[in-house]
Amino acid sequence: MSAETPGESAGNFDRLRLRFRDWRGTRPFWAGLFTLLGGIPIAYFPYATLKLGHMSLAMATTAGAGSLIIGVLLVTLGLTMWFQSATRVFAGVAAILLALVSLVVSNIGGFLIGFLLALVGGALALSWAPGRPQDEAPGEHGGSDAPTAHGATGDLPEDHVAERHYPAPSFEKHDGGEADGVRAAVHDGGHRVG
After folding, report:
1. More confidently predicted of 162 and 111
2. Number of domains in the chain
3. Region annotation Disordered: residue ranges (predicted)?
4. Residue 94 CA to chain centroid, in angstroms?
5. How deeply is 108 buried, as exposed, middle or buried, from its count of CB atoms within 10 A (0-12, 13-18, 19+)?
6. Structural contact between residues 119 and 111, judged by C-beta atoms closer than 8 angstroms
7. Fewer Cβ atoms within 10 A, N terminus or C terminus of the chain?
């Protein structure tokens, strides 16, 4: 008989689910998943033998090795996005480039399935940015670039920055007092008619 009760096993499942959700939230999970799934049809279709009744259909091409390399690289890039999220930009650009190359090399990118999955995965990797930890307040920054109390005047928050006033343009005096009237109107904010 088992020492675990049903309530404890449900607690373990919830704990594992929450741990997975925390792990997933700290990395470009969906980008890695789409990239990894995009590599599978690209590598699979050139070596697959499909059976339609008594007829077998082989998709083998002379570029089968190229398809296998592209597929394996896309799977590797998907795993890299998961476990080395600091290299997400490189992995995203490489996934997009490999997806584009697969259009020519690998049966139209694994019949467009692998191409679209890898393209979306690469784009998601490029657009993903690490979030702020939940225990940190919105106004706080937890890094070396955090503003200090002794910061320069350029470090003021946006709502404390005063409007900049630029000097009025200067006009040269040409024939008579016409320029003086324009200059006076400019200095008064444009209210004087001249």
Report:
1. 111
2. 2
3. 131-194
4. 14
5. middle
6. no
7. N
